[in-house]
Design goal:
Elements: H1 3-27, H2 32-57, H3 62-99, H4 117-143, H5 159-204, H6 209-224, E1 228-235, E2 243-251, E3 254-256, E4 261-263, H7 267-275, E5 279-281, E6 291-293, E7 296-298, E8 302-310, E9 313-322, H8 328-367, H9 372-427, E10 430-433, E11 439-442, H10 444-450, H11 463-466, H12 471-482, E12 487-493, E13 496-506, E14 512-521, H13 524-529
Antiparallel strand pairs: 1-2, 1-9, 2-3, 2-4, 5-8, 6-7, 8-9, 10-11, 10-14, 12-13, 13-14
Helix pairs in contact: 1-2, 2-3, 3-4, 4-5, 5-6, 5-8, 6-8, 8-9
Length: 530
């Protein structure tokens, strides 16, 4: 074959390869397919031209053409490997980690560059991983109770993100319901505790109506956080003229001694008595009531008037004023307690009337001593009364005996404790500190261990200063002693190993009186063990 034909053949092969490149460029623009095709077409076209040349010139040229062809093949393989295998391996490893739940992975940025499909897939995989990390962080914050944590949806079709939002909203709703239930439980418990407290109070003060009323209003003001309260008791001694009498008034931690009577239907209190319904107002009439304190004279913001009503029988009215509005559960509590107050006041009034009748019976029995039948009847009544009084006297006697026995037991225990305490003080050398941590006295036995210095040389020193472990540790030990704990330390006083027991001493009111340090001398063997 002539040289011209050989050159024309090689040119045609080159043109064919170039045409294939152009066609692929048009069909697969911005595609990894074009890059792979370019990596393959160059070695293939080169091998074709070498094969044509060897076929035209003879197989002898295969010796140099074959290595060139093999080199081009390896170059094409290397390029295709970099473009396909390594990015795909990267994707496989990262997707494998994601499939196992590991979102804390990193990506090689070089595989994210470019506009072809693999780079786009890699960038989307990075975005997906970041989204999963965000969801994990969001879930962790939600798990910690941080329900206001923000999260940005990836798009309108972010189903997982929307599900997380729904979960957060459900948890927020559940938390709100939980808080509401807790608040409701606290309110019910507050009412229950208050009712029990006032029931005990009413049982303890049921023999004097004035003291009972004062105890009611003072405790009511403190318990519900009001500023002023008064209790009016119905005086029905005159069947044709019932009036309300102010029995007790309390404001700003002080008992008020006022005298006031109100007719039925007069003012708000009289209206409450007449209608037998509670009255709650937050806009009071001008100059209706003022609360006076050391800071001035000011009108209250809320007023609650509740009738003392039980079994359709009314016994009085309680009026409460405050600078804040009363919540519904507070009003409910006052109305419940009002029933118990009415019942107790009714019992007290019955007892008072009973006593009055007894007194009247005595007078009548003395005046009508000449009438035998009436005297006999009066004597029977008196005998019944005396029997009740004897029964009560016996109960009182039994109660006093029990109280004496309890008092004697308490005195005996107190004496035993005192003797034990004195025995300890006599047995061991002691050091005494005042309530503010100042050394007050030091036993002769301790002075003997310390050396020849007199007691005055040690008095007046602070506990933290003389504590052998240093001032900081001494302050910590003193704080423990003040809180009621005992403390023990081991040290040497003038080369003598000792064990020191620090004992706080409190009175009956649990108030610290002093701190006693018992100094116990140890032998060398015991000191080593300690």
């Amino acid at each position: 074959m002539s040289n011209i034909a050989l050159i024309i053949g090689i040119i045609l092969i080159f043109i064919a390869g170039l045409s294939a490149v152009l066609i692929c460029r048009l069909l697969f623009k911005r595609s990894i397919v074009f890059n792979v095709f370019m990596a393959l077409i160059v070695p293939i076209d080169t091998i074709a031209m070498l094969a044509f040349f060897v076929g035209a010139r003879g197989i002898i040229h295969l010796a140099w053409a074959a290595p060139i062809a093999i080199a081009f093949l390896f170059c094409g393989y290397y390029l295709v490997s970099n473009m396909l295998r390594k990015p795909l391996d990267e994707m496989r490893d990262r997707v494998s980690s994601l499939s196992e739940g590991d979102v804390h992975i990193s990506f090689d940025e070089k595989y994210q560059k470019g506009k072809h499909e693999l780079a786009e897939v890699m960038r989307m995989l990075v975005k997906l991983t970041a989204s999963l990390k965000g969801i994990v962080d969001f879930a962790n914050h939600i798990g910690k109770g941080e329900l206001n944590t923000e999260y940005t949806l990836l798009g309108d079709n972010d189903t997982l993100g929307k599900s997380m939002f729904d979960m957060r909203r459900n948890l927020q709703d559940a938390e709100i319901e939980k808080l509401k239930r807790q608040e409701e439980d606290e309110r019910r418990n507050w009412i229950t505790v208050g009712v029990a407290k006032f029931a005990e109070l009413l049982r303890a003060n049921n023999d004097n109506i004035e003291e009972l009323c004062h105890s009611i209003v003072s405790n009511m003001v403190k318990y519900i956080g009001a500023n002023q309260a008064g209790i009016f008791i119905l005086n029905d001694e005159d069947p044709d003229h019932h009036v309300l009498e102010l029995k007790a008034c309390y404001a700003y931690e002080r008992r008020k001694y006022l005298h006031k009577t109100i007719e039925q239907g007069e003012g708000l209190v009289g209206t409450c008595l007449l209608e037998r319904q509670s009255i709650y107002m937050t806009h009071l009439p001008k100059d209706y009531i003022h609360i006076t304190s050391g800071l001035g004279d000011e009108a209250p913001r809320a007023l609650l008037i509740v009738p003392l009503l039980v079994n359709e029988e009314i016994y009085g009215v309680v009026e409460i004023a405050a600078f804040k509005e009363f919540e519904p559960h507070v009003r409910e509590f006052v109305e419940k307690v009002a029933e118990s107050i009415a019942s107790t006041i009714g019992s007290v009034k019955v007892n008072i009337r009973t006593n009055q009748l007894l007194e009247l019976s005595k007078v009548q029995s003395e005046e009508m001593a000449g009438q035998e039948e009436e005297l006999r009847q009066n004597m029977e009544e008196m005998q019944a009364t005396q029997e009740e009084m004897r029964r009560r006297e016996l109960e009182l006697s039994n109660t006093l005996e029990r109280m004496k026995a309890l008092q004697q037991q308490s005195e005996e225990k107190e004496f035993e404790t005192k003797m034990l305490y004195q025995s300890i003080l006599k047995t061991f050398p002691t050091i005494e500190f005042s309530t503010d941590g100042i050394l007050k006295s030091i036993d002769h036995g301790v002075l003997k261990i310390l050396g020849d210095l007199p007691e005055a040389a040690y008095l007046g020193h602070a506990f933290a200063k003389v504590y052998h472990g240093g001032e900081a540790e001494g302050k910590a030990i003193w704080n423990r002693l003040v809180s009621g704990e005992h403390a023990t330390s081991f040290t040497k006083l003038n080369h003598t190993p000792v064990k020191i027991e620090y004992l706080p001493v409190f009175d009956k009111s649990n108030i610290l009186q002093r701190v006693i340090a018992l100094v116990i001398t140890l032998d060398d063997d015991t000191a080593q063990v300690e």
